Each structure stands twice: as C-alpha cells, then as structure tokens.
Amino acid sequence: TALLRMENVRKVYDTGVVQVEALRGVSLAVEEGDFVAITGPSGSGKSTLMHILGCLDVPSEGTYELGGTDVSRMSEADLALVRNRQIGFVFQQFNLLPSMTALRNVELPLVYAGVPSAERHERAREALTRVGLGERTDHRPGELSGGQQQRVSVARALVTNPTLILADEPTGNLDSVSTNDVLELFHDLHHAGRTIVLITHEPDVAQEARRVLRITDGLISDDTVATR
Ligand code: ADP
Ligand code: ADP
C-alpha cells in the first residue's frame, strides 16, 4: 500500500513582485518499505517537494496524503504533530547540538514526545547501537567524524520509530568514505523494512536507492528502478 500519495501538487511562491511556480502538478505514490531517491538540478523544486513531503509546508493546490490522512490543508500546529510522530529528518548539516553527547542528541525527539527519562536513555542507546555507534554514546559531535555525526543524526531520526525517514542531501557534507558508510546504513534500514525518501542532487547517490524520481522544472520527468 502507498504510504505517501501526492496528487497534482502545485506550489507557488508569491514574492510580492513575481510568482514562482516551483511545483507544477506533481503526482507520486511511495510504497511502504520502499527506498526512493528524488533528484534533479538546482532550482528544479527538490527542496519545495521535500518541505511538503516532510509536512514543513503545504501545497498551493492538490493533495498530499501521509499514511491515508490528507495533510494538505492542516494547520501549522497539526502539521507539527504529524512531523513529530511520523517523520524522522536527516539533514545535510547534521543539526546536532554541539554541547550535548550523542546520547542526549538522540534523546531529544523523545523529550519533545514526553517519554520518561529511563525509557529515553534505553531507546537512544538502542538507536545508536543500530547505527554502529554503541561505543560512542558519550562523545560530543565535535569528537566524532562527519560520517559518525551523520549516523548520530540517523539514530535521532529513528528513535521515535517514524513511518517515514526523510533525508535532505544527507551526504552533501561528507567525503566519499563517509558517504558510502551512510548509504550503507540506508540500505540496511531499507532491508529492515523502513520507508526512506532521499533528496539529492548527486546522481551517484540517487542510484543507491531502489527507485529514482527525477524532477525537472517543477515536474517529475523520470521514474525508474535503479540500475545497480
Ligand atoms: P531545488 O531544491 O531543486 O534547488 P527549490 O525547491 O529550492 O529547488 O526551488 C524551486 C524554485 O522555486 C526555484 O525557482 C526557486 O528560486 C524558487 N523558490 C524556492 N523557494 C522560494 C521562496 N521561498 N520564495 C520564492 N521562490 C522560491
Ligand atoms: P540544508 O540541507 O540546505 O543544509 P537544512 O538541512 O539545515 O538545510 O534544513 C532544510 C530545511 O528543513 C530548512 O528549511 C529548515 O528550516 C528545515 N529544518 C531544519 N531543521 C529542522 C528540524 N529539526 N525540524 C523541522 N524542520 C527543520
């Protein structure tokens, strides 16, 4: 069954001077458990699509259903709840708090969710073990390599047990060794049944997904099963 379904999504930015049509009628469905990359050149609409998929913004027209619920006309407060409960975000810049240990960083989404501290520690430890950092729980981000920091942020994305993992240029700040390391982790999570949507402008990274959607000028221009 489709976990995500977009129908004819348009997104128009009104700058006051001109209107920019960033998405011009995007329809797509992502199956539960799939690993999908969205790729395309700069300015093609990837970030706009990522923001809508992640419930950070809503379409100007068209519908977006996540897990069977139409989220395209929800209020900001309701969208925030959907984000916290259903989506694990991974960003290019890691977005880890530098003064906190890896364990505390991974615990943060559970703090917001009101999970008691003993359970938080246990789940954060489990998530860090899952990404291969069970021995690094007390390290601060500055004491970890870029690849390790990104794995901490994947652990933070996993710890709430989200229905969707949404990764926005997750390898953009990584060298090739760490890039492979993080992509290996995504493969591993995919095989464990997770649904992953990966946004990247790098064709080689996109090819690591099972399915690759290409976006050009605000429209899906290509939809293929990866060749590798
Ligand atoms: P990508 O992530 O592929 O680079 P974006 O989604 O950022 O593409 O941008 C798609 C188009 O929408 C571009 O023409 C961009 O300039 C425009 N755009 C994006 N965000 C805004 C905004 N907040 N206001 C006005 N135009 C925007
Ligand atoms: P970039 O990939 O360009 O480095 P980021 O990954 O920092 O940018 O953020 C991408 C978008 O997601 C930004 O528009 C930002 O406002 C939003 N964002 C960043 N962190 C969070 C978060 N923890 N929760 C919700 N939205 C976020």
From TrEMBL:
Keywords: ATP-binding, Nucleotide-binding, Transport
SUPFAM superfamilies: P-loop containing nucleoside triphosphate hydrolases
A GO molecular-function annotation: ATP hydrolysis activity
Coiled-coil annotated spans: none
Location of the ABC transporter domain: 4-228
Keyword Metal-binding included in the entry's annotation: no
Cellular component, GO annotation: membrane protein complex; plasma membrane
Pfam families given in the database record: ABC_tran
UniProt keyword Nucleotide-binding present: yes
Domain of life: Bacteria
Alphabetized Gene3D superfamilies for the sequence: P-loop containing nucleotide triphosphate hydrolases
InterPro entries, alphabetized: AAA+_ATPase (IPR003593), ABC_transporter-like_ATP-bd (IPR003439), ABC_transporter-like_CS (IPR017871), ABC_transpr_LolD-like (IPR015854), MacB-like_ATP-bd (IPR017911), P-loop_NTPase (IPR027417)
Protein's UniProt name: ABC transporter
Source organism per UniProt: Propioniciclava flava
